[in-house]
Amino acid sequence: MPSYPHPPVPQAPPRGKARVRAALVRAGAKALRGDGGRPPSPDHLETARILIIRPDHLGDLLFLGPGLRWLRNRLPRAHITLAIGPWARPALPGLAGAYDAVIELPFPAFERGPRAGAVARWELLRREARRLRGQAFDAALICRPDHWWGAMLARFAGVLWRLGFDTQETTPWLSRALALRHEHAAAANLRLMTALTGDAIQPDPIAHPLRFHIPADDAAQADALLAAAFGGDGGPLVVIHPGSGAAVKLWDTAKWAEIARRLVDAGARVVVTGGPDETSLTQAVAHADACILDLGGRTSFSLLAAVLARADLVLGPDSGPLHLAVAVGTPTVHLFGPADPALYGPWGDPARHVVIASPWDCVPCGKFDWPDLPAHGCVRDIALEEVWAAVGRLL
After folding, report:
1. Which of 25, 173, 195, 383 is the most exposed place for a label (fewest CB within 10 A)?
2. Number of domains making up the chain
């Protein structure tokens, strides 16, 4: 299969600008060296104040769950604070019982939409470091490998023991940097948590699964929605979630509509889900079929979880809702293109969660901000029959 039709030019800062930034970050860290700190003693660690920094979006926060629950069980008397973006709050039921406090931070470069300028970013760093300094944290874990801003924040907040991963811009701000591995994000989170305590475990999706607590009100509302649409009986319930946070991850809408039509013809009950800004997409997939329930823009994240938990199968591109389906125990089919499924694929039983990757030679490239999406069809070129075959296997 072809690669991208011309050399990749993603919408990212110019290389020269990135090199200057990296040099400044390293120089700043070098000027402030001398506070490498010592890890909390085993006795102190039992009641330590621990800061977990995770700036990413919904699926990434779900991947934090296995490691965070392990840490909570290992240090039941420690005080664990999460620093997350406000955009990730809906995923917190996936971490229920594993933390003590939450700090919301509008982490630069993770907001969707207009981004803050350089002056605003540095002012945010100064202000938030001052706020965190007052909480006297004993240790900080920077869970995203390349998040130098978070590592710098922990340093300026006076956290003496800072753990993260070995990357060019992050390492100078850390007390200890773990070697990067080509491993799933959930496994990396587990490895970081165990590095804090000095334990060693073998990360495994069966032993350390994703979870999501569904509130009773959302469970009842999901039952009511499905009963009103389909009655009490019917064939298997299949959810199609065609949207994703990055346009380059999307499959062909007409192919989703064809999958939905085939499922209805086969006697399945079909639900199409999506966020408030994806209603036109869900409508195109449901194609006004009275046999298909279109829930586009009608569910919160926890109500979506309740609907997914009642399904026999969930289909969609790589996205937070697909990982949510894994977390509630429903079999899934994930379509992948630019993202690496070894790092971000379903964290669950491979017999129940199928990955279908683009046939293009250049995947996974790890680039999500391509400027000319009409020419970038790596996910769209996944064959409809390959997806339909996976549906047949799992149903």
Report:
1. 383
2. 2
Cβ contacts of residue 374 below 8 Å, gap of 6+? none
Per-residue confidence (pLDDT) for residue 198, from 0 to 100 = 95
- Residue 39 CA to residue 50 CA, distance in Å, equals 12
pLDDT at 293: 97
> Which residue blocks in the chain are alpha helix, DSSP H?
15-31, 42-45, 58-74, 118-133, 148-156, 185-197, 216-230, 253-265, 279-286, 301-309, 320-327, 341-344, 384-394
Q: Is the pLDDT of residue 12 over 50?
A: no
Span 331-362, pLDDT tens digits: 999 999 999 999 999 999 999 999 999 999 99
Rounded Cα distance between 250 and 242, Å, is 7
Residues ≥6 apart with Cβ < 8 Å to 40 = 48, 138, 139, 161
pLDDT, mean over the chain: 91
Determine the longest span between alpha carbons in the chain, in angstroms.
Answer: 68
First to last CA, the chain: 29
Q: Which of 144, 170, 197 is the last residue of a domain?
A: 197
State the residue range of the domain holding 102. Answer: 36-197
